[in-house]
User: Which sequence fits this backbone?
């Protein structure tokens, strides 16, 4: 029976599972949604229909139901040989993926104050899999770990220093697994080694962030203490003037209400008043809906500004890379963004850009561009699967 690796990704109300074989080929994936609500359900890719879950079902019940369904369908005949978990916040404790033990669980718990919406659900996914698969080595892969190489000048806010010392108030950065994958894939596609490759990596999905990677190492990134800072996102504002909080408190807003609006009702959704979905926004803009075009304009301009800002951390640039649902699929967003960067010498080939670079090893720049520009599909699950099997391989058999 071949070894398999299970990848577990818990969101606040969702659970994603992916099973890989020992060649790291994905065998199956499944998703449970609306956990904690009355209409929770699960779905296995390639299977018809959905699997209802009990009202209010949590991550543990969803895991239980999906694993039972995998077994009943003959899709998982033995326990996986390794399990990898996405964990959002590793604070300053975790610089790389680690095998999970009691101390690691406590440390993830102690980072929960920095990610109250994420780390507790990540922990419940880990606890559920520990109960379901006792004895299988489990690995935590942190969104923040890749950015632990940020220099002080990039991670410190200009705030009272005691806030950093006593409470850990600093920039951590997120999407690290995706940015690390981008760095490695860019090096491979350019025929270089990661340690000699410098990249600006733009991860543009529902959440968006951009990272400067110098010789394989993260040296600046747009997300900060939380994943709210930086670029315009689907529902998140990205950067705003901190003076906004005082202004809004004068208007009668409580801090938690402002927090909710900045996270859930801002970004593309707030600007367009219609949707957080970039594909729908492009269609609306094509039909003359001006607020949707404005949302696209603000998104692209902020992104272009950040690409310029990331240059300050690099001594040379091997490539600008786009990834995530928007970065991989929207030629229009890539073109509108690069259009702002002519002075820096970026130029796209409209032909290659429209074909997502699929005929040119991901490259979409024109021959006159000063820097290569690439489109690379991200694969965070694959990185987690690789890390989980690498670390499981270091465990002595019982
Ligand atoms: P992700 O979070 O990486 O799955 O990315 C989701 C975002 O990608 C959503 O805003 C989608 O509308 C966007 N997206 C996916 N395909 C396209 C496309 N062809 N054009 C524009 N946006 C797209």
Assistant:
């Amino acid at each position: 029976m071949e070894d398999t690796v299970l990848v577990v990704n818990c969101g606040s109300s969702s659970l994603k599972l992916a099973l890989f074989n020992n060649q790291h080929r994905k065998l199956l994936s499944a998703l449970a949604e609306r956990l904690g609500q009355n209409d929770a359900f699960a779905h296995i890719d390639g299977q018809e229909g959905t699997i209802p879950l009990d009202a209010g079902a949590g991550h543990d019940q969803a895991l239980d139901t999906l694993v039972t369904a995998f077994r009943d369908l003959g899709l998982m005949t033995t326990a996986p040989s390794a399990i990898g978990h996405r964990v959002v916040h590793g604070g300053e404790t975790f610089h790389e993926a680690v095998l999970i033990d009691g101390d690691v669980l406590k440390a993830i718990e102690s980072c929960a104050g920095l990610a109250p919406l994420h780390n507790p659900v990540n922990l419940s996914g880990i606890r559920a899999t520990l109960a379901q698969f006792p004895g299988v080595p489990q690995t935590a892969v942190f969104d923040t770990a890749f950015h632990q190489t940020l220099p002080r000048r990039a991670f410190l806010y200009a705030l009272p220093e005691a806030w950093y010392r006593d409470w850990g108030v600093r920039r951590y950065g997120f999407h690290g697994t995706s940015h690390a994958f981008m760095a490695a894939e860019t090096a491979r596609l350019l025929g270089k080694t990661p340690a000699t490759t410098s990249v600006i990596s733009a991860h543009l999905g529902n959440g968006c962030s951009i990272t400067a990677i110098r010789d394989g190492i993260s040296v600046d990134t747009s997300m900060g203490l939380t994943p709210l800072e930086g670029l315009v996102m689907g529902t998140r504002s990205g950067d705003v003037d901190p003076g906004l909080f005082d202004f809004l408190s004068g208007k009668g807003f409580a801090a938690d209400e402002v927090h909710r609006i900045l996270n859930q009702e801002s970004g593309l959704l707030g600007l367009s008043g219609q949707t957080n979905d970039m594909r729908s926004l492009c269609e609306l803009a094509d039909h003359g809906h001006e607020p949707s075009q404005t949302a696209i304009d603000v998104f692209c301009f902020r992104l272009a500004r950040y690409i310029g800002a990331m240059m300050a951390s690099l001594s040379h640039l091997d490539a600008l890379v786009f990834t995530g649902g928007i970065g991989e699929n929207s030629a229009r967003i890539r073109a509108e963004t690069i259009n702002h960067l002519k002075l820096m010498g970026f130029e796209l080939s409209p032909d290659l850009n429209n074909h997502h670079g699929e005929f040119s090893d991901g490259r979409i720049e024109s021959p006159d561009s000063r820097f290569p520009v690439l489109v690379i599909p991200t694969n965070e699950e694959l990185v987690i699967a690789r890390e989980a099997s690498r670390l499981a391989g270091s465990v002595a058999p019982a």
